[in-house]
């Protein structure tokens, strides 16, 4: 399988975990009057 990302540019495991935690915890709710960010602990 061909890699599209160079090894030097590969993010660390810590960076991946932080991104996943942020994506899981914070959601953007789209409503009629705009967007609202909510935290799901």
List the helices and strands and how they pair.
Elements: H1 13-25, E1 26-31, E2 34-39
Antiparallel strand pairs: 1-2
> Distance between the terminal alpha carbons, to the nearest Å?
38 Å
Query: Strands of the biggest beta sheet: in what spatial order?
Result: 1-2
- Work out the helicity level: 25-40%
Taken in chain order, the helices and strands follow as HEE
Rounded radius of gyration (Å) = 16 Å
Can you tell me the residue ranges where pLDDT is under 50 for at least 5 consecutive residues? none
What proportion strand? Answer: 25-35%
Structural class of the helix and strand makeup?
alpha+beta
Number of strands: 2
What is the mean predicted local confidence, pLDDT?
72
Largest sheet: number of strands, sense, barrel closure: 2 strands, antiparallel
Count of helical stretches: 1
User: What is the approximate shape?
Assistant: elongated
């Amino acid at each position: 399988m061909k890699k599209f990302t160079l090894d030097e540019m590969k993010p660390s495991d810590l960076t991946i975990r932080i991104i996943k935690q942020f994506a899981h915890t914070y959601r953007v709710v789209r409503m009629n009057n705009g967007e609202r960010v909510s935290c799901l602990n």
